[in-house]
Design goal:
The structure holds two protein chains of two kinds.
Chain A lengths: L15 E2 L2 H6 L2 H8 L3 H11 L1 E2 L3 H16 L1 H11 L1 H21 L5 H30 L6 H14 L2 H14 L7 E7 L5 E7 L9 E4 L4 E4 L5 E3 L4 H52 L8 E2 L6 E5 L2 H6 L9 E4 L5 E5 L6 H16 L8 E4 L5 E5 L13 H14 L5 E5 L10 H14 L3 E6 L4 H4 L5 E6 L5 E3 L1
Parallel strand pairs in A: 8-12, 11-15, 11-16, 13-14, 14-15
Antiparallel strand pairs in A: 1-2, 3-4, 5-6, 9-10, 9-12, 16-17
Helix pairs in contact in A: 3-10, 4-5, 5-7, 5-10, 6-7, 6-10, 7-8, 7-9, 7-10
Chain B lengths: L17 H6 L8 H7 L5 H13 L3 H23 L6 H22 L7 H11 L1 H24 L1 E6 L3 E4 L7 H11 L16 H10 L1 H13 L12 H19 L8 E2 L5 E6 L14 E5 L5 E6 L5 H16 L8 E4 L4 E5 L11 H16 L4 E6 L7 H17 L3 E5 L12 E6 L5 E7 L7 H8 L4 H11 L2
Parallel strand pairs in B: 3-7, 6-10, 6-11, 8-9, 9-10
Antiparallel strand pairs in B: 1-2, 4-5, 4-7, 11-12
The chains are: A alpha/beta, B alpha/beta.
Chain lengths: ~475, ~475
């Protein structure tokens, strides 16, 4: 049984790990801290953003669920309440299982301890089965359109409406109230060596009927003992051990039902927390009058956005009106080179584009009016940063070279590189000359790149196929050079 | 029923000393069962009969059938051992049925061994004897009936509540089965539980038997009829079958390394001739094994073997000894071809650990060699000596060696004496040597000595850089 709110199908597509420094340089930690103040919720958000996907079906799957929950916030709340029961149930089930292992290992297991265990597991199983039915009932109340929620409803419905579900519940009820003092029936089987291989509970109805005998006058009935052969009580301890074993065996069956269902259901609670956090993030942006959209996933055409906002800037202003949005299309071939003076907004532009790529690939809505998203296989980023204490005399140049060398070594077709003022150090006037072959290499390898830079010598070095050049204007907007 | 025939009959000659097999390094190569059988050399007829079996085993189907037969016999032996009088009566009934089933299965397989040569002919014939056939048919009918009677006794229902009462089980479904069905229908996985079989409580056994008194009486009647049957008798074939299969497996293992095996021709008079004889004890070391020839005849029954250390002298001695042992037990030997006389006695003298009390090494060795000769008791023996008297002073040791060689040849024994006493080249005995090339490379080839014995002392000096050339070079380097 497999259900997930993040991944369609049996197996999730390979997760793309996103390095923490990438989130740091994009200031996603800061912006999301403002937009989604609850730390626990934010952590679930980060857990997904740091393991993005490039599978269009998976991104669409998440977008649909998110859109559904945005449309029906009551559903999100109800699901949250429903799912919140699963972890507690799982804890109870695991505790009982742990206890069962102790009971199984003990040579002095008493019938009473085994009976208690059976009762606990039967109750756990019953609650789990009822939770599944509740979930099916809850989802039935909405006209769902998201594939993920529909399949969750169908799976729960298939279980809850199956006669086996009802029969299991009956058995759960029966054994949650079992008493070792009541009449119990056991079936035993010996192997060809004459040793006991099975001693299990069976329904009392399999025993011969109790005969009724009329006696005297007025009519009085007295039950006559059942037929059958009385068994000498001499091996009482042996029978007690068989009984305990029969109870624990049955408990193991109840436990397996609860365990398997909860193994599938408990992760849903965690996955739902991601959507709940995303709802908070969306609500915060809406409050700032910022448009939100789910990018259309277009693996054949480059990423493009209209009215794209930078999240960090948005957090600094009460409304989005004071932030300049960008409209951009990445080139179909080669990379995008954005030139501009200091303080012209190059970094903001790069950050908003990289954020679009990351949040979009996590399945989240992004702050823009419209967007196409071409998922990348690996996102990489090289931001100019302060000198690290261990850096040698080459200052910031050598660490940057090392970072680029790592990219050249590790990246392949489909990757996307965001470069911010790479080789900006004035001590290295030949920065453009050094950077050019690297950018050419990226283009030749099918690695998409976006470079914001003040290296004016670069454009003549690159052919139009290798790079499309934009310039950042004084109004913080970009335009083709 | 007739007495069950045995495959291996005891040999008249005394067993070979167990230490001989350890000295020949067979301990790690073969099981104790095989080693104990190798210690009992056979006569000519028995060797021929066993060789027939090994020849049959070259056909894979025979090998498979023999393996199956061995498994059946081991199952029978195990079934017999499990019959423990202290078990509850119903368990005993079941174990009787298991033993009977294993017995009939083993007999059926043994009856099909008639094509495996004369050795198995008697066993096979035993099963076609009308008396045996009739007895087995009765046992088969008994087994069928026993199983029929026991089947319903192996299931039942117990009602628990103020004591236990037993009822027959007319197909009750357990709660476990019902739960499993529900779990499966829901697409979930039921638990994979494998409860261990536990002893049946005697009280339940008694109750079950009381529930079915007619069946119990009939079972008792059947078992009483079988009281005189010796069920364990066929298990007497186990050591022989194990032996055949183990030696066959060894030949297959050797063959995989390119080592041939052959069933030697049985020589009518004392001789030991073999082409390309291998020391199979080296198989475990994964080193290439160099074969050598052997030519021990009545004309030249005794050889000294000399040569450089590590040149293959002891390996040659072991190859001679191991293959002679294998031949004596009717097994294939590891050579291209061979013709060997079934020597009724063989022995070997290897250096022992220095744990003598009251005497020195020389006295101990002299005593041991004297005992070896005495134990031959008039039989033509093949004796092997590895560096015997090597610990003694040159002249005394050599004197002992000469005396021993004289005694040995005078008694008509065959033998091989590995020694580093190079003076043996001055005696009239034929000499073998481990050949070394001119560049002082060991070839591990053993050949007739043609003078100029290789100096093992020089070899040791060279290895440690103390030979003339090495020392000269050292001087050149250090320029005294």
């Amino acid at each position: 049984m497999h259900i997930s709110l993040l991944h369609p199908g049996e197996k999730p597509s390979p997760a793309i790990p996103v390095k923490p420094d990438l989130l740091y340089h994009l200031s996603l930690d800061r912006s999301l801290a403002c937009l989604c103040p609850d730390r626990a919720s934010r952590e679930t958000l980060f857990a997904v953003i740091t393991h993005i996907t490039a599978a269009p079906a998976e991104i669409t799957y998440r977008q649909q669920i998110m859109a559904e929950l945005l449309r029906a916030p009551a559903l999100a709340e109800a699901l949250s309440t429903c799912f919140s029961r699963f972890p507690a149930l799982q804890t109870a089930q695991k505790d009982a299982e742990r206890e069962a292992r102790g009971v199984g290992a003990s040579r002095t297991t008493t019938v009473t301890s085994a009976k208690n265990l059976l009762q606990t597991q039967a109750i756990c199983c019953q609650r789990t089965l009822l939770s599944v039915a509740d979930l099916a009932h809850l989802l039935d109340q909405y006209s769902l359109t998201a594939e993920g929620l529909i399949s969750l409803r169908d799976i729960c419905r298939a279980i809850a409406e199956n006669p086996a579900h009802a029969r299991l519940l009956q058995l759960c009820r029966k054994y949650s109230e079992i008493s070792e003092r009541e009449l119990l029936a056991y079936r035993f089987t010996l192997n060809p060596d004459g040793r006991m291989v099975e001693y299990c509970l069976t329904d009392r109805r399999h025993l011969p009927e109790e005969t009724q005998k009329k006696r005297g006058f007025p009519l009085r009935t007295k039950s006559q003992s059942r037929p059958g052969i009385p068994v000498s009580p001499q091996d009482r301890e042996g029978y007690d051990s068989f009984t305990a074993s029969a109870f624990t065996t049955l408990a193991a069956h109840f436990s397996s039902v609860a365990r398997e269902l909860l193994q599938a259901l408990v992760p849903l609670a965690r996955e739902l927390r991601f959507y709940i956090a995303a709802l908070t993030y969306a609500a915060a942006l809406r409050e700032k009058d910022v448009p939100l959209c789910f990018p259309e996933i277009t693996p054949q055409t480059p990423t493009a956005a209209e009215g794209l906002y930078d999240l960090l800037l948005l957090t600094e202003f009460p409304t989005g009106r004071r932030v300049v949005p960008h409209t951009v299309s990445l080139p179909a071939e080669g990379g995008l080179l954005v030139l501009g003076e200091n303080g012209s907004g190059k970094t903001v532009f790069l950050r908003s584009l990289a954020t679009l790529q990351l949040l979009g690939q996590a399945g989240l809505p992004v702050p823009c009016t419209r967007a196409n998203l071409n998922p990348c296989t690996v996102p990489a980023l090289q931001f100019s940063h302060s000198e690290a204490p261990g850096d040698n005399a080459a200052g910031r140049f050598e660490p940057a070279v090392r970072e680029l060398a790592g990219m050249v070594e590790g990246l392949d077709t489909g990757a996307m590189v965001f470069l911010n003022e790479t080789f900006q150090s004035t001590a290295y006037a030949e920065g453009a000359e050094g950077l050019c072959p690297i950018l050419r290499h990226f283009s030749a390898c099918g690695i998409r790149w976006i470079l914001v830079s003040h290296l004016k010598d670069l454009p003549p070095m690159l052919s139009p196929k290798e790079a499309t050049v934009y310039r950042m204007g004084e109004d913080y907007r970009i335009s083709p050079e | 029923m007739m007495t069950f025939p045995q495959l291996f009959t005891p040999t008249p000659s005394p067993p070979l000393p167990r230490r001989l097999l350890s000295d020949l390094r067979l301990d790690g190569l073969l099981s104790e069962n095989a080693l104990s059988l190798l210690c009992r050399p056979c006569g000519e007829d028995e060797i021929r009969r066993r060789q027939q079996v090994f020849a049959c085993m070259e056909v894979q189907t025979v090998c498979r059938a023999m393996t199956e037969c061995l498994s059946a016999l081991e199952a029978l032996e195990s079934a017999c051992l499990r019959l423990n009088a202290s078990a509850p009566t119903l368990t005993l009934y079941c174990l009787h049925a298991r033993r009977l089933s294993a017995y009939l299965n083993a007999c059926e397989l043994l009856a099909r061994t008639g094509t495996w040569g004369e050795l198995f002919a008697e066993t096979s014939t035993y099963f076609v004897h009308p008396e045996t056939e009739q007895a087995l048919n009765t046992l088969r009918e008994d087994l069928r009936r026993l199983e029929e009677l026991l089947l319903p006794l192996r299931r039942g229902l117990l009602a628990a509540g103020g004591g236990y009462r037993l009822f027959p089980d007319d197909g009750a479904i357990s709660e476990e089965e019902e739960l499993t069905a529900c779990i499966t229908v829901l697409g979930l996985t039921p638990p994979n539980l494998h409860p261990a079989a536990v002893p049946l409580p005697p009280s339940l056994s008694e109750a079950i038997l009381a529930l079915c008194p007619e069946a119990t009486a009939e079972i008792e009647e059947i078992l009483a009829r079988q009281a005189s049957t010796d069920f364990l008798a066929p298990a007497g074939c186990i050591p022989a079958l194990k032996f055949f299969l183990e030696i066959h497996a060894l030949t297959a293992r050797a063959e995989a390394k390119g080592i041939p095996h052959t069933l030697p021709a049985i020589a009518p008079k004392p001789e030991y001739r073999a082409d390309a004889l291998f020391d199979i004890s080296l198989l475990a070391d994964d080193h290439p094994i160099v074969p050598n020839d052997a030519r021990f005849t009545e004309k030249e029954p005794f050889f000294f073997l000399i040569g450089a250390n590590g040149g293959g002298k002891t390996t040659y001695l072991r190859a001679m000894g191991i293959n002679l042992l294998l031949f004596g037990a009717g097994c294939p030997i590891f050579a291209r071809s061979a013709r060997i006389y079934p020597f009724p006695r063989m022995d070997a003298h290897f250096p022992a650990d220095e744990r003598f009390t009251g005497t020195g090494r020389l006295e101990d060795e002299a005593r041991r060699t004297d005992t070896m000769l005495a134990e031959c008791g008039g039989m033509t023996a093949f004796l092997l000596f590895n560096e015997t008297f090597s610990g003694a002073d040159g002249e005394i040791g050599f004197a002992h060696l000469k005396r021993l060689a004289a005694d040995l040849t005078a008694a008509g024994h065959f033998g091989l004496f590995v020694t580093h006493f190079h003076h043996v080249t001055d005696t009239s005995y034929p000499i073998l040597t481990a050949r070394i090339t001119e560049g002082n490379c060991r070839t591990f080839r053993i050949e007739r000595f043609r003078g100029a014995a290789a100096s093992h002392a020089a070899d040791i000096l060279r290895r440690h850089g103390l030979d003339a050339d090495s020392l000269e070079k050292r001087r050149g380097t250090h320029a005294y």
